[in-house]
# Entry
Amino acid sequence: MTTAPIGILGGTFDPIHFGHLRLAQEAADALRLAEVRFVPSGTPPHRAAPSVSAADRLAMVQLAVAGNPLFRVDECEIGKTDLGYTVDTLTLLREEAGGQQPLVLLMGADAFLDLATWSRWHQLFELTHIAVAYRPGFPVDTWQSRMPQPLAAEYQTRLMQQPLAVHLAPAGGIVVVPIPALDISATLLRETIRRGASVRYLTPDSICQYIQDHKLYTGD
Ligand code: ATP
# Structure
């Protein structure tokens, strides 16, 4: 008997929004996760530096998950100023969880299509399952043709048709979680604020308030 899987959602969260929160909730329900850990990145290796401080991004993630007993924040990456790699974070989380408890790395389809560019990405499958959620612009029905060959090969070998199969082994599988697609991104929020408009209903009210109080994303 294993304990229920832990979901892990890494991201820049610059800022966190309802796309992240729905992904976490849908995955928690579909995969019957024990909890979802939000892991805000320090200085992410794959993209330009976040536009607000790590402390602000962390504070917003903490506010957003408050009140959901399934959601926790893991601060293991946030203080890092060097390139923090997902495989190193997963190694740490695997040590904490022990060998048997299933881990499930949650990500949108956009992130999954990029996976083969991540450092030591093959090793991830020794540490965790991967659950991929729908994201507008990345149609899952045609996406195999958009995968680079090494990723397509892993996908074909590892895809599990039954999402609850993540309970049966600690790591190694890929599942697709069909969530109602929300066309929300942190980029959209940053652009909306920059042109002086409201981000209400794209992210929780507590985050709108935090952004306003701290005058974030106004473009100086
Ligand atoms: P940006 O617009 O700055 O690129 P983002 O909105 O994509 O940011 P990230 O913090 O980079 O947010 O995303 C973290 C994870 O959440 C990624 O796996 C991403 O695919 C997923 N994600 C973000 N928004 C959505 C969404 N609307 N639907 C599904 N998955 C999402």
User: Anything to note?
Assistant: The chain has a mean pLDDT of 92. Helices lie at 18-30, 54-65, 86-97, 109-113, 121-127, 149-158, 186-194, 205-213.
